[in-house]
Specification:
Blueprint: H1 11-14, H2 16-19, H3 29-40, H4 42-48, E1 52-56, H5 62-71, E2 77-82, H6 85-97, E3 106-109, E4 124-129, H7 138-141, H8 145-148, H9 158-170, E5 171-182, H10 187-195, E6 199-210, E7 213-222
Parallel strand pairs: 1-2, 1-4, 2-3, 4-5
Antiparallel strand pairs: 5-7, 6-7
Helix pairs in contact: 3-5
């Protein structure tokens, strides 16, 4: 089984700017579970020959960094979004820390897909989303930048449900979506909502119990 090496993210801890910045979401167990998922599916992803890879809510950009290193920087357009300007700067440094010196990540300051126009619809071949999934009160969803990175509202679904509405429009036919959920997010409902938009579950690629969370990453394929 092929493995993704975890991109170096020590700058988040070692660089004073980041270690003192409480608005930067550092890679955690869910991030590394996602890397393991992509490693398990690397042959499938390569066979897809994606030309546009898009990560929503990139954080420190470790997933996009891993993809770029595994697939090759010239093989696809690597895009990522986040709502936090500090996170965008961290993502650029993650690229640099991992030897990607001649390429910078295309990180867009955006809430989900808000800054992608009509011309970008149906173009994404590979879509990744590690969402704010933690069940919280409604008001925490609109809190500070750090809480926005994990607070998911009732059932942890506030951002996930918005993503479900928007994402299928930006996916190419036969494209893949990798989505991290926990059991409290009611995965069966998410699966049904995406199926109504022709995005069908293929497999639960990986799942793991972490502290009080049962995390899982689901692979979907758009088929119309």
């Amino acid at each position: 089984m092929k493995q993704f090496g975890s991109p170096k993210t020590s700058h988040v801890l070692d660089t004073p700017l980041w270690s003192s910045n409480s608005n930067v979401y550092e890679p955690r167990e869910d991030s590394f579970l996602f890397l393991d998922c992509l490693g398990k599916d690397l042959d499938l992803i390569k066979s897809l020959k994606p030309t546009i890879c898009l990560e929503i809510g990139t954080g420190t950009c470790i997933l996009t960094t891993a993809l770029c290193k595994a697939l090759g920087p010239s093989q696809a357009l690597y895009l990522a979004t986040d709502i936090n300007q500090n996170v965008i700067e961290a993502g650029i440094e993650t690229f640099q820390k991992n030897g990607l010196l001649r390429i910078s990540p295309n990180i867009v300051l955006a809430d989900l897909f808000e800054n992608f126009g009509q011309s970008f619809k149906t173009k994404t071949d590979l879509l990744l989303f590690n969402p704010p999934y933690v069940p919280t009160e409604d008001d925490e969803v609109n809190g500070d930048l750090l809480s926005k990175s994990w607070a998911g509202g009732p059932d942890g679904r506030a951002i996930i449900d918005r993503f479900i509405i928007q994402a299928p429009d930006f996916m190419a036919n036969n494209s893949l979506l990798y989505l991290l959920l926990i059991k409290e997010n009611k995965p069966n409902e998410v699966i049904e909502l995406l199926a109504q938009k022709s995005v069908f579950l293929e497999k639960i690629v990986i799942e793991r119990k972490c502290h009080n969370e049962h995390q899982m990453i689901l692979r979907f394929r758009k088929s119309i």
